Automatic annotation (TrEMBL):
SUPFAM superfamilies: GlnB-like, Periplasmic binding protein-like II. Residues 246-317 form the Histidine biosynthesis HisG C-terminal domain. The gene is HIS1. Its main location: cytoplasm. Keywords: Amino-acid biosynthesis, ATP-binding, Cytoplasm, Glycosyltransferase, Histidine biosynthesis, Nucleotide-binding, Transferase. It holds the Pfam family HisG. This is ATP phosphoribosyltransferase. GO terms for cellular component: cytoplasm.
């Protein structure tokens, strides 16, 4: 089958080829019942049960494909979207989507996805002489986020000259590195770096410390300004939102004497309201969605007001 021709009429949805966001994004698709089989080494997979094709791309390229309207939807890091925005601002000709016009990056954020949280941070040797970002002005910075780093130091340079407009020449040298950025300082390639930090383990292992945050990031669903099939986008968005909500909540069920029902439902008010079923002997059974990260406290409080048979169940999906 000619795979490229079979894309006709399908909504194109870009996912990270591999790396940090790949598995979590695939789990979301599974929860949203988007079924596909990816053949070995193929970067395109047709969805079996919906008119969608999945395109597997590097995280950094997804905003370009979505921004230019070549792909309708995408999952990538917010850091990558901001880097793309900064690249388009620096070179408006790269925004070649006729629907958006030059100068606009063309990606709309649909929602945060609740995984891939990290921070793009300015880092320097922990035992060195740089203590704040201003100390790095005029020095060499290693990064994969060249455009965000350029914007960051351009702003800093114009501040350091008393707010005078930046004259277009950056005194700080930005060196593009494609990975293992943390090695740059120790090996003398850079004085400081701008790179991602999650736990901080990589940074500390390299003898670095963070002195500022450029972008707070999380995985996001993005869409192009003029998608080929807006109804299909709405359908996928609502399915994904259902999966994400389900991941944040658990279902809490318990039995309680009717006389204490109002106290108990104050503890578990539910998303809209708790479901209450009357039992024979002056008792009621209650079922309610509770935020996963609050469930232990909620169970403590329910026991305190006399709830019995408290059960906590996972929710697979919700609308
Ligand atoms: N340590 C991390 N913790 C959480 N999210 C991260 C982390 N590192 C990266 N990310 C997120 O995942 C996105 C893709 O990063 P990833 O490391 O998967 O790609 P890459 O660096 O291009 O590829 P690779 O590391 O496989 O060479 C980043 O843009 C960021 O949003
Ligand atoms: O704070 P931590 O939890 O240690 O995570 C941060 C590290 O994770 C990413 O690297 P990755 O493993 O993707 O390798 P890369 O540098 O080659 O992209 C990022 O570039 C940092 O190096
Ligand atoms: Mg990486």
């Amino acid at each position: 089958m000619d795979l490229v021709n079979s894309l006709e009429g399908r909504l194109l949805f870009a996912l990270c080829q591999e790396g940090r966001l790949n598995q979590a994004a695939l789990n979301l698709l599974e929860g949203a019942d988007i079924q596909f089989r990816r053949q070995n080494r193929l970067d395109i997979a047709l969805v079996k049960n919906l008119p969608i094709a999945l395109i597997f791309l590097p995280a950094a390229d997804i905003p370009t494909f979505v921004g230019q309207g070549r792909v309708d939807l995408g999952i990538t890091g917010w850091d990558q979207v901001k880097e793309h925005d900064a690249a388009v601002r620096a070179n408006p000709a790269t925004a070649s989507n006729p629907a958006t016009g030059p100068g606009l990056s063309g990606c709309d954020m649909v929602m945060e996805l609740g995984f891939g949280a990290c921070r793009l941070q300015v880092q320097v040797p922990a035992n060195g002489s740089y203590n704040c970002s201003l100390d790095l002005v005029g020095r060499t910075i290693g990064t994969s986020f060249v455009n965000l780093a350029t914007d960051y130091f351009a702003k800093l340079e114009s501040q350091s000259t008393g707010g005078a407009p930046h004259n277009g020449t950056l005194h700080t040298k930005i060196v593009e590195l494609s990975g293992s950025v943390e090695a740059a300082c120790a090996l003398g390639v850079a004085d400081g770096i701008v790179d991602l930090v999650e736990s901080g383990e990589t940074m500390r292992a390299a003898g670095l410390m963070a002195i500022d945050t450029v972008v707070e990031s999380t995985a996001v669903l993005i869409r192009s300004h003029a998608p080929s099939n807006p109804d299909m986008i709405d359908l996928i968005t609502s399915r994904i939102r259902g999966v994400i909500t389900a991941q944040k909540y658990v279902l809490c069920q318990y039995n309680i004497e009717r006389s204490r029902l109002s106290e108990a439902t104050k503890i578990t008010p539910g998303k809209r309201a708790a479901t209450v079923t009357s039992l024979d002997d002056g008792w009621a059974a209650v079922s309610s969605m509770v935020k996963k990260n609050k469930i232990a406290l909620v169970m403590d409080d329910l026991s305190r007001v006399g709830a019995h048979d408290i059960l906590v169940l996972d929710i697979h999906n919700t609308r």
